[in-house]
Specification:
With 416 residues, this protein is an alpha/beta fold. The protein has 13 helices and 16 strands. Strand 4 and strand 5 form a beta hairpin.
């Protein structure tokens, strides 16, 4: 192992010679590994800034802005405590400090793992779902204080009221992951549930390779988008609705204007030149005004668009406004909905629209739904004997006829 020459911090920060993990560093006659010293420095930094409110003026959502601040603080500690160590501040060290001080600690490791879809925290223990398989990680936090710190950071970033009076918090993390937290007194302990946002840049060919559908369905899906069919994607949580929607919207011609409405930034259209993104805003505090789905759908009707994409139909007002939009010339639009089959998806959309007003006639709403939706896709995940998810597949692909049956029900032509 090579010995690093002692010297001033300026010399230590030079790019050459570069230290490698495992190299030995000498400090005051003692020899330490680089990894050990970096960990010690970050630990000292955490203690030093623990009660420094000014250091935490920015929220977790602006975490990248903290890198320079951390670099200065770490440099100061090296100068004061380890001036002759020869240690250098590299990207790995800054990332570790960023995660420990402004991030979510050990949770960051699983948020950045593209194979992890869900994280469950109960007290100091963690369970994850990776590649569809549940994995018991066990105790990952040294104490309840560490868990409380993570909760506080998430609360700070959300800017929402969250305490014993309002013991529920539903928010979005800095990377787009959905987070739900429940605390006592309504629960016996702290429960944190994170639906990890893994923005893997799939295209339709990738899903074909993953056997979500066969070549025939692949061709049908492409034609449905290009022929401007209104598509409703249905399934349970984790069935792949958003993944499929993300691949279909990439097929929209670049000449078309898209209005995109969503609660969380799950649908990505980075390379499309004409996308107007509208995002709902929950009421975080008493002084805030809530902006919900139906308001955004209503407003988007005033904005000239060729297609409307509603990330998910969640409430009755949004369902009603969406049906109005799809019946007023916005062909080739998309949305998703929670349902157990293609037929149930139409019933659920109808039911939500009916809840919008007591004076709505069921037969009329059915006709509106049948004329608004052209294609329903139902997705389902398959499980193995241990109830772990194996894969996600299109189970039903149905064309919706514009006229109801003689009995006044929906008429579906199943292609899958």
């Amino acid at each position: 192992m090579k010995q690093v020459q002692t010297g001033q911090i300026q010399e230590a920060l030079k790019p050459e010679p570069e230290l490698k993990p495992g190299d030995l560093l000498k400090f005051e006659g003692e020899v330490y590994t680089e990894k050990f010293l970096k960990k010690e420095i970050i630990s000292l930094l955490k203690k030093r800034i623990k009660d420094d409110a000014a250091f935490f003026t920015d929220s977790i959502n602006t975490r990248e802005q903290h890198r320079e601040k951390l670099y200065i603080a770490i440099s100061s500690i090296i100068n004061e405590r380890y001036p002759s160590s020869g240690i250098r501040i590299d990207e790995e060290m800054l990332d570790a400090a960023l995660s420990e001080i402004f991030g979510l600690g050990i949770v960051e490791r699983y948020l950045s793992d593209q194979k992890v879809t869900d994280i469950f925290i109960q007290d100091t223990e963690m369970l994850i779902i990776k590649d569809g398989v549940k994995q018991q990680i066990g105790k990952v936090f040294e104490s309840q204080d560490e868990v409380n710190l993570i909760v506080d950071r998430i609360k700070l970033a959300s800017a929402k009221t969250f305490d014993q009076r309002v013991p529920f918090l539903n928010t979005e993390l800095y990377d787009g992951s959905r987070c739900s937290i429940v605390i006592p007194p309504v629960s016996d302990r702290i429960y944190i549930t994170i639906r990890v946002f893994n923005c893997i840049d799939f295209n339709l060919e990738n899903l074909l390779e993953l056997e979500m559908f066969d070549r025939e369905v692949y061709t049908i899906l492409k034609n449905c988008v290009l022929q401007k069919k209104n598509i409703l994607i249905a399934g349970s949580t984790g069935s792949g609705k958003t993944t499929l929607l993300n691949t279909l919207v990439k097929l929209i011609p670049e000449s078309e204007i898209i209005n995109l409405i969503q609660d969380l930034p799950e649908i990505k259209l980075k390379n499309h030149p004409y996308v107007r993104m509208l995002t709902t805003r929950p009421k975080a505090r008493e002084i805030d005004n809530e902006i919900n789905q139906d308001r955004l759908v209503f407003e988007t009707l005033r904005m000239k668009a060729d297609r409307i994409i509603l990330g998910e139909v969640r409430d009755c007002m949004a369902a009603y406004q969406l049906l109005q939009a799809l019946n007023t010339g916005h062909r080739g639009s998309f949305s998703t909905i929670h349902a157990d089959s293609a037929y149930d998806a139409l019933l659920r959309l109808e039911m939500l629209a009916m809840e919008y007003g007591t004076n709505l006639n069921s037969a009329i709403v059915k006709k509106i739904v049948a004329r608004a939706i052209d294609v329903v896709i139902f997705l389902e995940y398959e499980k193995d004997e241990n109830l772990n998810i194996k894969n996600r597949k299109i189970k039903e692909l149905a064309l919706v006829e514009r006229e109801l049956s003689t009995g006044g029900d929906y008429k579906l032509s199943f292609l899958q």
